[in-house]
User: Fold this.
Amino acid sequence: MKRMLIAAAAALTLATAPTKAQDYPTRPVTMIVPFAAGGPTDIIARLVAESMSKTLGQQVIIENVAGAGGTTGSTRAAQAAPDGYTILMGHMGTHGAAPGLYKNLKYNPSTDFTPIGLAAGTPIVIVTKKAFPADDTKGFVSYVKANNDKITQAHAGVGSVSFTTCMLLTHQLGVKATAVAYTGTGPALNDLVGGQVDYMCDQLPSVIAQVRAGTVKAISIALPERSPALPNLATTKESGLPEFQVSAWNAVFAPKNLPEPIKAKLADSLSKALDDDKVKARLLDLGAVIPQGKERGPDALAALVKSEVDRWGPILKSVQQ
Amino acid sequence: MDIISNLALGFSVALSLQNLALCFVGCLVGTMIGVLPGVGPIATIAMLLPLTFKVDPTGALIMLAGIYYGAQYGGSTTAILINIPGEATSVVTAMDGHEMAKNGEAGKALGIAAIGSFIAGSVATLVIALLGKPLTAMALIFGPAEYFSLMVLGLALAVALARGSVLKAIIMIVLGILLSTIGTDLDTGEERLTLGMTALSDGIDFAVLAMGVFGLAEILKNLENPEARDVVKSGIGKLLPTMDDMKRCFAPIMRGTALGSILGILPGNGAVLAPFASYTIEKKLAKDPSRFGKGAIEGVAGPESANNAGAQTAFIPLLTLGIPPNAVMALMVGAMTIHGIIPGPLVMSKSPDLFWGMVASMWVGNAMLVIINLPMIGLWVKLLKVPYRLMFPAILLFCAIGIYSINNNPADVFLTAFFGLVGYAFYKFGLEPAPMLLGFVLGKLMEQKLRQALTLSRGSMMTFIERPISAVLLLIALAIITVALLPSVRKGREEAFQGD
Assistant:
């Protein structure tokens, strides 16, 4: 009995003793997803986490901490211990648009996190109801401009990707389409399929099934090159709206001051996950874009966060007035 | 006949040894976890999702669907045994189901819930197979204006649902609507009534409110008066419903099934209305409405059937349109996507074995639930024999775990405790929490739909009358309110419920 107690005590001290960064990880890693389970960010996180579990040799567990446009979960990750056991799957909203949207944001996307690397980007598509009187970007732009006072656009709530990207589009077109707020992509898409609203901008994975089945009409995709998931769909660049370039990127972050070896290990594991055939196939089928070469790793992500925060701030400020 | 060959294909998939086993494991695990108070289908599926990673997509979906039914059924079990409804749809079950448990008829209540659910599930499976496609087209006609009017109709039902004073019912409904306005404004993104607390910025979670005013308040009530609680201990009663009970419940089960099947298809989470509507109808049709609220078996049978039928036909918008009608279905979309299937209108033609296999597995899953649950009723009922001084700390602990698991947020646990005190105060003042919860659920939807409809109509209120379906729904609501408020009728009502 006594021996067992000593053994247990020893095991306990071992478990609580700060382990060397080189040994990382010795227990499961929690990846916070700041949105509800089932959405595009959650899907990407779960696919990547499963592969990272294999390369890290420890389970990467998904914890959904939804709320306030993803800032609740991101705040929690920012305040966690920088030991590599709490990481975050942030995205364009939480680490790009959030400072422009939330006055009381409790973190700074650039300084409160250690960037690990870009995971996957989801391209933005302009989709309209089936009966919309235009089929291509030029027709869409001229119709929207001509019917400035009648046109309606759906979005999935203030702060959502569909909201920020729609704001960007109307800002660039200089129109004032009436924005109809929904509580998520699902309900918004439902009214688009039903023909209640005219158009919306959303992430390709959310609308791809509808586009393929023809229940909504895709106008163009905001990518420099066509997506292999929808090869017939023109890009905004080739069809006359080149300034509309936007992607809902998702990326892995850790709290600031993460030790260098842990950072390198996580970045390496993430990169391996993106080369995992199964993960790759699923992501590509969804229409996601996988970062290659220089786009991967902590430095590229740090630069991306900075440019995104600088970009969204003024746009969101101008449309909110 | 296409449908027969389709269903045959479906059953050949669903009845393979592997898929049967997966369906069984799904239902069993779903029930086990769903029985924990507050752990509803969403939390259960999210937690168990990694379990399905190693299986092929069809098998994984069959297992997930099993978890979904299991958790749904588990929610009714806690509603009946300890008066804690895990979600909006089991609030009604708690009303008469828990009274039955207190009368020593817990087994009967659980039994009729399982049987009603099975019948409803079987019918709903047929509805999905036969009418899935045409019904989807119907559902798309429903725009924001129609939903708003449907919610108005729901509130009218809530007034009729109340026992005792109409005034008190209206107070509680309005309170529920007011509570639903807490949180971030949908259109502007501004926080409303949050008192600067981050925990309130997304509004109050339904489970937090329901577990507080029902579950924790119930515990406080019982601690104040320990003897009342022992009633459950003294007589467990018959484990299964008698032939007489079955006869009495047949019509309510059928009506509930029909209501649930129709409302479940509506993509705006219309299914939450089904159990409330079923309960109101059964109470109106009953020879002796005063039994309702005191352990009427029809008050469990009808709403439980409506609940299950709705839970199942909620798959229609997902399977035929690829659009999730509620949060659970949104999670199913995610689960399907992770398995490499993007739900949408093409699933049916592109992978018929998956589509029909899943439809067939719904029936198999419902049958499984009966097989798992009927023998377990004895076990659940025995739980009630555990002395209350041991029981209530366990309930509290599981409540805390359940609440925490919804958003992984400790503030939710404190908020639940607060609503427990509020619920206890309601009890002291003789106020019913059920109409408040309905007001809370409908209030949220109503506000969204009202603002969407008015944005689309450029502020013209006429949109609600110009659109025919909306106009008809409003007329029915008006008729219900008139009947409820007519002085002569009200006098009769109050006499009937004076005994409360």
Remarks:
- Chain A has eleven helices and nine strands.
- The CA atoms of residues 37 and 247 of chain A lie 21 Å apart.
